[in-house]
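re: ur question from yesterday

yeah so i grabbed the chain u mentioned. its 381 aa long if i counted rite. heres the sequnce exactly as i have it in my notes:
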Amino acid sequence: MKKKVVSLLTVAALSMSMLAGCSSASDTAKEAASTAEEAVSTAEETAADTAESVADAVEETAEEVTDAAAGGDLASKKVGVCIYQFSDNFMTLFRNELENYLVSQGFSKDNITIVDGANDQATQTNQIQNFITSGVDVLIINPVNSSSAATITDLVVAANIPLVYINREPDADEEQRWKDNNWNVCYVGCDARQSGTYQGEIIVDLGKDKVDLNGDGKIQYIMIEGDPENVDAQYRTEFSVKALQDAGWEVDCLDDEVGNWDQATAQQLVANALSAHPETEVVFCNNDAMALGALQSIESAGRTVGTDIYLVGVDALSEALEDVIAGTMTGTVFNDHFSQSHSSADAAINFVNGGTNDYYIGCDYVKVTSENAQQILDSVK
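ran it thru and got these structure tokens back, copy pasting raw so excuse formatting
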């Protein structure tokens, strides 16, 4: 381009010189030469600016295409979510937050399917098979029975679909299987031993003299368990009492019943237990729903939490937190559904994007008493 511009300008200069005559030839030639230099300079700058603009435009377009492709990747991916039972208060909080967070990360709400296992493992297994047939890209499963994890894992791995277990932890042997076979399977949740320990510590922190109402040197308690096959229920039952024993307290179990996480069931069980054992000093419940049922029976029996009996649960449901603030429940343990649901979604995203996860992704519980119940309540509303 430069040579062409120079050639044209040179011809023009010579023509002008011939027409103007000899007397002005020198001045005209100088002016033409100067004009030619300016034209060349302008042409070079314009070419450089144009090249830079084109490069910037190409780069910007490439970035936009990349971003669009990334967003499109998640938006087009199908997520199957199995919840053991929709009527569970805590899992309702969990699944709603999980769906909202998945959408915020780029998944299409239309491609997120959440199903209710209705607390029946056969129903849930059929739902998992349907998800596999429909070709989901990742499965997030809250198993009805943790003991069914091996069967579930085999189904999903055989279909080459990544799997994220949530809330109900498979046993150690099952988790070791994932690691030994390098499978795209992981568990996201809290260690239920911590929640049980926190329940016990809430009681211990009150002081033995205050809790031992009859002064016999022992703590008489009743235990309301969730599902006996569930690891969380097993650990909460064991470690809540262990915390008292670790503090050097002697304990006496008056009754241990299975409430299956249900408020109405727990209400009846506690009513029966208090009638048979009026000397009860502490009521341990594996979750807040059952603790709320227990509270109804405690009040119906003419007892007052904090005065002649103590009551603890797990989950930090809003209603339970309000009772802790009011003093009608001794304490609870915050089962952080925000942290767990977000971590579960992040693990699913890693799998979808071809990455890997730790086989165990842990989250912490939070001990809740009257001192911090309002703060926790504000965070969950």
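noticed a couple things. The chain has 14 helices and twelve strands. also The chain has a mean pLDDT of 86.
anyway ttyl
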